[in-house]
Amino acid sequence: MADILTIHFQMSKNNGGDVEEVMYPTRKKGVAFVTFEDQEVVESVLKKDEHRLEDKRLSRYYPLKVTRYCENVFSSVTSVLNMSIFKDQFVLEDLIQELKKKSTALSFGPLQSNGHISVQGSFPAMKLLRDFLLLKAKSLSEEDKKEESQSRQRPRRRLQQHRLTMETSNSVHDADGEKQVVVLDTDTYHYMKYLFPRIFVVNGDVVVSDITDGDITTVYIENAGSRSDAGQVLRVKEKIENQSIKLHEVLRKEKIYFEEHTRDERRRYILACKSLKPYYPSVLVIPYDTHIDVIGNAQEIFDFTKDVSSKVQSLLQRR
């Protein structure tokens, strides 16, 4: 059935496009979750008046009820790469083409005259790109050292590897390895703090701090005591990074908007969420002035938001 649904939502006659994932079966009988690669395809699919599931493997056609569900917690990140540091060793246009072939999950903008290029994609895909670029940077750095030892009269080309790391990755470190930085989506960070707090609780020799700026939270991992070492800091950083990559694959976010925009309505929704929360321990609820963010796996937040709606209605009927 997952294959049949994938084919259906990829067909142009159904206003479809590239399908990233189909979740079926789910805990809700007859319900499937379809994730598209592009938001434009989502809007196009929703505009079609009627969806009929037809396939030679089915005994008859089935009408489909297609509705908008929720969004990924963090679907993509945009980064500007400074490729000018490679201009003495490579033809930048050829290097960009090589990157595109190796990183098909990323979208590349036009190469600017100053060597900058915009890249968009998921954190995991960005991390793979970072690793590839650092490997190239390392190989060039080793070549420079070899050339310098052979002829000290030649001016050594300076490869700004640290700057490259700062500009292209979601994880950076200082020269002596005693400080690590991981950049996370703020919602993912909140979920990790809520469900996996032990990742951020370390001994007194390592200090973990954070700075949140809108959708992005930067986590700093640093040495605090004389007994700590760079390896210990690096291990903490890797735990945080690996957990964030796992969560990127499964987390979704649903927004519950307050229609009346009144304090009483907000109170009802928050009360409903609190009363249901013990039944959904893996769901994170973050209230705001205009809406409530619900973060978790697709099935659980689907059930949770449905139960919240029913609970709010029952609270209204009691009045």
Describe this structure in words.
Mean pLDDT is 80; it is low at 152-177. The protein has 319 residues and is an alpha+beta fold. A hairpin with a 7-residue loop joins strand 7 (107-108) and strand 8. It contains 9 helices and 15 strands. It has a 4-stranded antiparallel β-sheet, sandwiched between helices. A 4-stranded antiparallel β-sheet has the order 9-10-12-11. It has helices at residues 2-10, 39-47, 92-102, 123-150, 161-168, 186-195, 230-250, 263-276, 298-318; strands at 19-23, 33-36, 51-53, 62-64, 71-72, 77-82, 107-108, 116-121, 171-173, 179-185, 206-213, 216-223, 251-257, 284-287, 291-297. Helix 4 (123-150) packs antiparallel against helix 5.
**Mean of residue pLDDT?**
80
Low-pLDDT runs: 152-177
Distance between the termini: 45 Å
Biggest sheet features: 4 strands, antiparallel
What is the N-to-C order of secondary-structure elements (H for helix, E for strand)? HEEHEEEEHEEHHEEHEEHEHEEH
| Share of residues in strands | 15-25%
Radius of gyration: 24 Å
Strand order of the largest sheet: 5-13-15-14
Helix content: 40-55%
Spatial shape: globular
The total of helices stands at: 9
Record field, number of beta strands: 15
Structural class: alpha+beta
